[in-house]
Design brief:
- The chain has seven helices and no strands.
- It has 238 residues and is mainly α.
- The chain has a domain of 150 residues: Ferritin, CATH 1.20.1260.
- Helix 1 runs parallel beside helix 3, helix 1 packs across helix 6 and helix 2 packs antiparallel against helix 3.
- The radius of gyration is 47 Å and the shape is elongated.
- The relative contact order is 0.10.
- InterPro entries: Snf7_fam.
- Pfam families: Snf7.
- Belongs to the SNF7 family.
């Protein structure tokens, strides 16, 4: 039997029928679908930052409206802010799903998981794009006829999308803003004793002089009265 090493041929191994062939788990990091997931994730982060700026501006508008005594516009700004906060919360959850897909997706999962992730990402992006306009926020303070009509339309739309719990949260936030704008009243300690001036124990010199003057005047008046009565008695006796 010829040695296979001598004739240049590689020795053959007898296959082990008991072992199962292993297929490496290929992580798909360069496919178009995987790239789309990353792009959607980055866009979501960008729109979230822009929406946060809108939320901050709406709070400023609510405070400005309260300063003018316009409670209706302040409430509208806070209602819109609450609705957008819920939108931001939902996109946070969808963003977490996309990040998990980007980090762990494998080639065998790409068909179903990526399609679902892309659908979620597209819906989240559309929701954010509709809410990140600062121009829409500024129209809350528009006092023109068109501005008032727009505000009424937004108010009616928000009323149909907000739960009673969210409306209660809006009212609490409005009360908090009103308390912030109230002038600060200094606190007076309830237990601190009140010191009153002592009652005078002596009569002031001016008061004594007045009393002395009144006494002299009364004495002189009685003497003059007696002097006048004396001649009258003499005349009656005569």
């Amino acid at each position: 039997m010829a040695d296979s090493r001598q004739d240049g041929r590689r020795p053959t191994r007898t296959p082990d029928h008991g072992a199962r062939p292993r297929h490496p788990r290929v992580r798909c990091t360069s496919s178009p679908a995987h790239t789309s997931l990353k792009l959607q994730r980055d866009k979501l982060k960008q729109y979230q930052r822009r929406l946060q700026a809108v939320l901050d501006r709406e709070r400023e508008i609510a405070k400005a409206a309260l300063a003018k005594g316009d409670k209706r516009r302040a409430l509208l700004a806070l209602r819109q802010r609450k609705y957008q906060e819920q939108t931001l919360l939902r996109t946070d959850q969808q963003l977490a799903t996309l990040q998990e897909l980007v980090a762990s997706i494998e080639f065998t999962q790409i068909q179903a998981a990526v399609v679902h992730g892309l659908e979620q990402g597209s819906a989240a992006l559309k929701a954010l794009q509709a809410e990140v306009s600062l121009e829409r926020v500024e129209r809350i303070m528009d006092e023109s006829r068109e501005g008032v009509a727009y505000q009424r339309e937004i108010d009616e739309a928000l009323a149909s999308h907000m739960s009673p719990e969210e409306e209660e949260e809006v009212l609490r936030e409005l009360d908090a803003l009103q308390r912030e704008q109230m002038p600060a009243i200094p606190d007076v300690p309830a237990d601190e004793p009140v010191h009153l001036p002592d009652a005078p124990t002596k009569i002031p010199a001016e008061a004594e002089g007045e009393m002395d003057g009144e006494g002299v005047g009364e004495g002189e008046g009685r003497v003059a009265q007696k002097a006048a009565e004396k001649p009258e008695r003499v005349m009656l006796a005569a």
